[in-house]
Amino acid sequence: MRVRVVVVGKLKDAALEGLCDRYVRRLRPLMPVEVAEVRSLGALRESWRKTAGIHIVLDERGEQPTTREFAAWIDAERERGCRQMSFYIGAAEGFSAEDRRSADRLLALSRLTMPHRLARLMLTEQLYRAATVLAGHPYHND
User: Fold this and answer.
1) Domain with 22 in it: what CATH number?
2) Which residues in 39-65 are b (16+ Cβ under 10 Å) and which e?
3) Residue 137's pLDDT band (boundaries 50, 70, 90)?
4) Dihedral through CA 31, CA 35, CA 36, CA 40, nearest 10?
5) 141 in a structural domain
């Protein structure tokens, strides 16, 4: 299964970009991943319309699974034959009610509102962590 992370905007911070890239590089041997930066929420929606698979919107109103629950959900979708899973991180204005209704799932990394650049770091780390759980790697400690 392929994972896409679609984000509005660029990081504009070398240190944060380095951290995100580190988790993406570590994730690639375990799970194919692509990060796509788009210019606007409109461009994100266009990418969404053109992409098959499962669409997950990051929103503080979403589910807050544990890491093991998140890993199990990814594994269950993979077992069901899902070929692509896309995660969407919006801009400062967030997503519309229609966007949230159109998503297959809403995922909250925290109930706290956070900048999308930190959400990107947290998501890439959690994807890596979930992949290590599925691979039986000792990275994750409960």
Assistant:
1) 3.40.1280.10
2) eebeebbeebeeeebbbbbbbbebeee
3) confident
4) 120
5) no
User: For residue 20, what are the domain limits?
Assistant: 2-135
**Residue 96, in any domain of the structure:** yes
Residue 23 burial by CB count (10 A; 0-12/13-18/19+): exposed, middle or buried? buried
Query: Is 94 inside any structural domain?
Result: yes
Q: What is the pTM of this model?
A: 0.94
Q: Which residues contact 21 (CB under 8 A, 6 or more apart)?
A: none
Residue at 142 is within a domain: no
- Rounded percentage of the chain residues whose pLDDT exceeds 70: 100
Q: Which amino acid is at 124?
A: T
Number of domains in the chain: 1
pLDDT at 4: 97
Residue 77: strand, helix, or coil:
helix
Burial of 109 per CB tally in 10 Å (0-12, 13-18, 19+): buried
Q: Which residue has the tokens 């997503």?
A: 95
Using 50, 70 and 90 to split pLDDT, how confident is the model at 136?
A: very high
Which distant-in-sequence residues (6+ apart) come within 8 Å of 106 by Cβ?
56, 57, 58, 59, 61, 62, 63, 100
